[in-house]
Amino acid sequence: MLLVAIETTSRVAGVALFDGDSLVASIEREGRGDMVLPLVDELLSARGLAPKDIARWAVDVGPGSFTGVRVGVSTVKGIAFATGAEIVAVDAFEALAEGREAIALLDAGKGEVYFRIPGGEPGHATLDAVRASIAGRPEPVVGPGIPPRAEAVGRLALTRAASDVDRLEPLYVRAPDLTRPSAAAAPRR
User: Fold this and answer.
1) CB 60 within 8 Å of CB 6
2) How many other CB atoms are found less than 10 A from the CB of residue 136?
3) 8 A C-beta contact, residue 44 and residue 50
4) Rounded to an integer, what distance in angstroms lies between the CA atom of residue 57 and that of residue 5?
5) Which regions of the chain does DSSP assign to beta strands (E)?
C-alpha cells in the first residue's frame, strides 16, 4: 500500500512516500504550506505516480503555522474526496516526539512555544515558563527549534486506523491573530 505524508506546520514543508513500511523518498524545502502541491507533484511524478495511485494520505494537523496547518489539512481532504483515499491525522507533538513518551515543544512565534506534557492537554506559554513547569520531570524534552518531519508523520500513520475525513480538523492551541479593519478601511455606505 502506498502512503504519502505531508508536513506543512513549520517553516520546512515536506512530503514523504512510503510503500508498505518502507520509506521510498522524501522531499523537504524551506517554505510555507503553499508549496505542498508542487512538492507532492515532484515526489509522485518522479516515480510515475499520480494522486489517484495513493491509498492513504497522512497529514500533520498542527499546531503550527495557522496558514500552513490549514493548507495541509485542506489539501489532503481535497485529495481524499477526489480519489477516495484514506486519511490519517497525526499531530505535530506526536511527529516531533516520533511516538515516544516525551515533552514536545514547538515554536509558536511571539516568544512562545506550544507544548504537550504526557498525560496533559496542549498549551502555549513562554519557553521559560514551560521549562519552570517541567523541571524535574523524567520524560525527555524534544524541541523547540526542531520542525516535525514528513517521515515521522508517515511512520506514525502506518500504525494507525484511518481518520474520519468529515471530522478531520486542524489542532489549534491558541486562537488565530485576527485584526479588525480600521475605521478608515471600513467600506463606505
Assistant:
1) yes
2) 4
3) yes
4) 6
5) 2-7, 12-19, 22-30, 56-60, 86-90, 103-109, 112-116, 123-126, 141-142
| pTM to 2 decimal places | 0.90
pLDDT, one tens digit per residue, over 78-135 is: 999 999 999 999 999 999 999 899 999 999 988 999 999 999 999 999 999 999 999 9
Pair type for strands 56-60 and 22-30: unpaired
Residue 96: closest CA among 9, 177, 174, 185: 9
Torsion, CA 142, CA 144, CA 173, CA 75, rounded to 10: -90
d(CA 105, CA 118): 12
Q: Report DSSP state, residue 165.
A: T
Distances (CA, A) of 133 to 50, 115, 120, 138, 165: 47, 11, 12, 13, 36
Residue 52 to residues 83, 85, 122, Cα–Cα distance (Å): 5, 8, 35
The Cα–Cα gap between 58 and 56 comes to 7
Cα radius of gyration (the chain) = 18
